[in-house]
Amino acid sequence: MTDTAPQTGELNVLCVGNAIVDVLSQTDDATIDELGMVKGTMALIDAEQAEALYARMSPGVETSGGSAGNTAAGLASLDAKCAFIGRVRDDQLGDIFTHDIRSIGVEYATPAVTSGPPTARCLIFITPDAQRTMNTFLGASVNLGPEDIDEDMVARAQVTYLEGYLWDRDEAKEAFLRAAALAAANSRMVSLSLSDPFCVDRHRDSFREFVSNHVDILFANEDEITSLYQVSEFDEALQHVRQDCRIAALTRSEKGSVVVAGDEVHVVDAAPVDKVVDTTGAGDQFAAGFLSGLTRGKDLATCAHIGGLAAAEVIAHVGPRPQVKLADLVAANLGG
Amino acid sequence: MTDTAPQTGELNVLCVGNAIVDVLSQTDDATIDELGMVKGTMALIDAEQAEALYARMSPGVETSGGSAGNTAAGLASLDAKCAFIGRVRDDQLGDIFTHDIRSIGVEYATPAVTSGPPTARCLIFITPDAQRTMNTFLGASVNLGPEDIDEDMVARAQVTYLEGYLWDRDEAKEAFLRAAALAAANSRMVSLSLSDPFCVDRHRDSFREFVSNHVDILFANEDEITSLYQVSEFDEALQHVRQDCRIAALTRSEKGSVVVAGDEVHVVDAAPVDKVVDTTGAGDQFAAGFLSGLTRGKDLATCAHIGGLAAAEVIAHVGPRPQVKLADLVAANLGG
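C-alpha cells for the assembled complex are given below, as produced in the milestone run.
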C-alpha cells in the first residue's frame, strides 16, 4: 500500500465526494425502460436493489469512479496537485479505488472503514447513443462525515471542490458544509458541481441557498441549471446564476460551454470528438480542466477550453477517467 | 445470484481452468524491464509479490479473465452451449467473475470457497506494441481439485477443453487428468491449450506424454509448439505434432494459423485488424472460434477462419473477452 504519511505543500484542488467503483456495461434502450431507469440520470439504490440489478446486467468492466474522484484523476493527469477525501471499506473494491487514485499521485488519506457496508459501487448502463444511466449503491461512502474533513488539507488547497451528490446524506452534507466553512475561514475558494438534475430536484432550496452564499465556482449542465432555477430556458437560468455566484461554468454537451463571472461572459465551442462512446465522466473532466486552468492563473475562456478538451478525451472511450496524459493533450492543442 | 440448479442437455464445450479477474493497465517497455518481467509471457506470483507489483502499477481496469474462462465467454458469444469449471472465493472479485460468466449464459456451478486465499487475479501490463505481460496470483484457484470435475458435465460435452496452466499445480493437474479420463470413458473429445512457452518448459515431458496419448485437439502458438518439441523451426514442430495428435491448430499471430489433422493440412490467413490494441485473450478466442465450428460440423479450414475472426475482434480492444456478438461477426464474414 502506498505511503499515507501526512503531506504538505500547496494544492491546486481538494476534491470531496463519494468513493465509488464503477461497473460499466453496454445495454440497449429497451432494457433501460424495462428496468424502470431514467436514461442519463443517477438513481440511489440499496444493497438488495444493487444485487437484483447486477443480476440483470451484462458482463461488466470495473474501474474507479465517483464524480469528485474522477475530477481528482483528471487534475492529476493535468499535472495539478490535488487531494481527495472520500470513504471506502477495507475490501477488494476499496483496495482498487485506493490503488488507482494514489497511483496517479492524488493525495488520499481517508482511512478505510473496517466494518459495515462494502465499498460503494455504481452500476452504469451505457446505451448505443453513448449515454450513461447510473445506479449507485453508496455502501461505505455513507460513513463520510464532518470529522473526515482535514482542516490542514482544506487550508492547503486553492479550491475545495464538492460534488452535489454528497447532499443526499445528512452526515456527508455536514462534511460538505464543514469543508466549505473551513475554506472560507482560510480565504480559499469553494466550488460545487450540481451533479444531476434529480439531485437538484431533491435539494433545490438548500442548493439555492448554498450557491448564493458560499459557492465561488459553480459547475452545472443545462438540465441541472434549469432545474435549479425552475426555468425552461437555458438563457433564463444564465441570467439567474450571474447574480448568484462569482463564476459559473455551464456545460451544454456538443454545444460547448458558457462561463459567466459578473459582467464577463464566454461562449466556448466543444472540442471535436470522432465518435462519442460513453459520456460517463464528461462533466467531471470538464471541471478538472477548468479548475486546473483557473488555479494556475489562466483566463476564464482558456479554462473552459481546457475543460472541453478533457471532456472530449473521456467521452471517446469507455470509463470515467482519462486514458491519455491530459497535460500533453492540452499542450498539443493550446500550447504550454 | 444466478440460479445454480443442475442443468441438462448437450454442451458443445466444457472449459476447465483457473478462475481469474484481470487487472489491465498500460505501461512502457522500460517498466517491463525494470520490474524484471519477460514481455509476452505469464509469471506466477505469490500474494506478497502481487501486492508489491500492484503498488507499482498504473490505474487499472478490472475484468473477468482466465484462459479457459475467456474461451467459454467466446463460445457463448458464438451461441455455442458451454460450461466452465474453476474456483473463486466468496469475495467481491469472485462475485464479479461469477456474474460475468453466468450473465452470458455459460453454465458455471463450481461453489466459491469460503476460506483461504482470495479470488485469483492477473496483473497484466500492456505495452504500446499491444503485447501483454501477465503476473498471476492464483489465490483461490489453487483449491480446484479432481472432486470439482463433474462426470455428468463432462459426459454432456462434445469437447472438454483444458488450459495448460492447470498443470502448474498437482491438485489441478489431477482435476485435469480426471476430466480427460472421463471424457475418454464417455467417448468425448479432449482438447488442450499449451497456454505459454514457460508453462511448456516447466512441464515438457509430461505434456508430450499427455498430447501423444490423450489429446484430440491441441492448440498452441509458435513459441509453445517449438518449445514442446525443442526445435527451432515452426515447420519442424509441425512435422512432429502431425504424428502426435488427431488435430493440431497452431496460431502464428499476424501470419494466421496452420491446422494439421493427419494428411489434412490448412494454412489460413489472419483476419485483418485495423489497429492491434491488446493481444490479451487472442489464443483463447481463437480456440473458442475453432471449437465452436468443430462442434457444429464445420470443416477444419472454416474452423480456423472462425477462430481468426474471434481473435481479431479481441485484439482490437483492451480486455480478453469479446465486446461484440461474435456470432454476428461470423455471420457477416462467413455467412450463417
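The CA atoms of residues 45 and 137 of chain A lie 5 Å apart. The mean pLDDT of chain A is 94. Further analysis is deferred to the final report.
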